[in-house]
Structures are given as structure tokens and as C-alpha cells.
Amino acid sequence: MPDAPAVSPTNDSDTGAPREQGSALCLSGGGYRAMLFHVGSLWRLYEAGRLKPLKRISSVSGGSITAGVLALAWDRLSFDPASDDFARLVAAPLRKLAGRTIDVGSVLGGVFGKESAGERVAAAYKEQLFGDATLQDLPDSARFVINATNIQSGALWRFSKPYMADYRVGQVPNPTVPLALAVAASSSFPPILSPLTLDLNPAAFTPDPRADLQRPPFTERAVLSDGGVYDNLGLETVWKNFSEVLISDGGAKIAAEEAPKHDWPRHAYRVLDVIDNQVRSLRKRAAIAGFQAAKDSPMHRDGTYWGIGTAYADYAAHDPRLACPAAATQRLAQVPTRLAAMPGATQEKLVNWGYAVTDAALRSWVDRDLRAAKGFPYPASGV
Known about the structure:
- By secondary structure, this protein is α/β, with parallel strands linked by helices.
- The chain has 9 helices and 10 strands.
- It has a single domain (12-366), classed as 3-Layer(aba) Sandwich (Cytosolic phospholipase A2 catalytic domain).
- α7 links the parallel β9 (242-249) and β10 (302-307).
- α1 packs antiparallel against α3 and α2 runs antiparallel to α3.
- The radius of gyration is 20 Å and the shape is globular.
- It starts with 19 loop residues before the first strand and ends in a 17-residue tail after the last helix.
- The model is unreliable at 1-17 (pLDDT under 50).
């Protein structure tokens, strides 16, 4: 079936209308930690033959960095599991970025320079990953949706090749927004990298009487923040449209604090972490309830969820050859949510963990006949 109207936050799928028969993938936020965890997930999907058939890939925040690189590489991938395409075209540039710190310089530049912190992040993405690519350079065979939060309307702002939209402001068809800027908006973590202001042309909007904010100043500029503020799993644009939903969650596991900080910057960060953790938990529970619903229920979805904090041994099909001790995976789940240089060994462990838990989730809940993985992408590092 065609996409739900971009100007509606929902469609009638949950009332029994037929969903599109196909698979969609959600990539959560979580800075470089999530970015690399998703690399491992995508790597296993690639080898399993489940990446190419995806009809939609919806991403937020750190997941959008990974999705953006995958999107630009998409038409050059052979999708041959025996090739090194994925390692060269997707994993390598993301690992190179993960060796560079861009958040501190962007914040300082935003404070003392003419550009905002978000604009400096976009410049770094342009230099390191995306060059002059725009949303019109995204592929057609799979729909990539990069999600940000519109602070003005309080709704989701979606970037994609056919349109960018906020259901309250309306839809701009065939946008030529730089891909680096879209990804930067999606990953503008509050409060230090947020907001990012996107200049708009009011005449570019498709007139729609349902869009209650389709008027200046909303059609002149969009003040955007991290996509995870609104939807930290990237579920909104896929859940009600597809029969199968795969969810990769690289969000941090919140740790207990015996003595929370009382100064306002660190206290604000802690509060944001608690809010993110709770909202993520609610969305996760709702998704799992959908997976567990009866097949004839309108709430039912095929698919599965896997997360960086998941207990590997709980999967019936976990592979003992891919050793993932709980203590090691929990350390990876607590890597800080930053765009900060990461040691090569930690990068490889995050990729390996994403790969292993995706393998276990697929073979436990999606395809029990799927052949076991050959081994970690980086066997010398383990997790």
C-alpha cells in the first residue's frame, strides 16, 4: 500500500486496515556507541540476506549517522555476503569518524564562533562522511527516513527523498537539504548540540488544510533538535505501515547514582537521561506487546527487538561460539553518549556485540532456519 500521508502522525492500520507486506528497520540514537552497535547489526543483516529486501529504514540521532552512510553506499553494495563491500563502504568510514571527537569543538565553536554547535556538527559530517550529497542522493529501492524533532510544533520532522514533513506544518516535496544537515539535525543532542535551525521556503510547501501550523514563521524556518527527543527508537514512521518491524536499540543503560549532582548543567543531563530511559522503555514494551499479540490482532507485528543492554544468554538461539559475557556487554552499554573519539578496540567490540545480538534475535524470533554466523567481524577483539 502507499505511504500514509506525511502530514498525519498515524494512519488507520491499527483499526484493521491492511499494512504493507514488507520489512522495516529502526535504528535508535546513542551517539558513537549506537552508531557502531548498528554497524554490527547491519553487518549481520547484510550477511543474512535481510538488508536488501528492507523497504524502509527509520533512524534517529546516532542511528542516523549509520543510516546516512548506508544510504549513500546502498547502490554500490553488491549484497553478496561473500564480498567485502559492507566492510569497505559502510563500516570503514564510520570507524574513521569514531576516531575523531566532534562534539567538544562544535560546542566551543557554537559558543565563541558565528556558527551554532549543530551547524559545526553538520560541517564535520560533510567533511568526514557525506560531502555535498543531498536528500535527493538517497536511494529509491529502500526508503530512508531521518527523524528530527521540531521544537516549534512539538512534532516529528521527517527527512526523506520524496519529502520532508511535519504533520502540523506540512510537506515539502523533493527536498534538496544537504544530507549532512539532516543527519546533524537528527543527532543534535540537547542541550549542548541543540537546536539546529533549518531555513525554509514557504512557497515550497504543498498546501494542506489539515496542517494547522502551515503559516509563517513555521514555514520560514524549522527549529530542530535530536530525533530521540520525540521518538528515541525511530518507530513512529514504520510501526503502523509495515507487517514486519526490526528494532536495533543502541541506547545507553542508565546507571544508578548514589549522589546525583546538584549543579544545574549536570543535574539537567541526569534528568534528560531519566526521561529518555523511561520513554524508551515504554516504546520498547509497546513494541514487544505487538510482537507477542495474536496473529489475528490488528496490533500484531512480525519482527523482533534487540538492544545493547539485552542479555545474550536469554536468546534461545544464542551462539556459544560468539562469546558475549554479560559483564562485557553491560560495559559496552554504558559507553557514554557522545561524539567523542573512541579507542579502536572499543569500536570493534561494539560492532561485534551488535552483530552477535542481531544474529541471536533473528534466529530466535524471525528465521529459525537462518544459518549461524561464521564469526565476529573482528574476531581478535571479541566483546
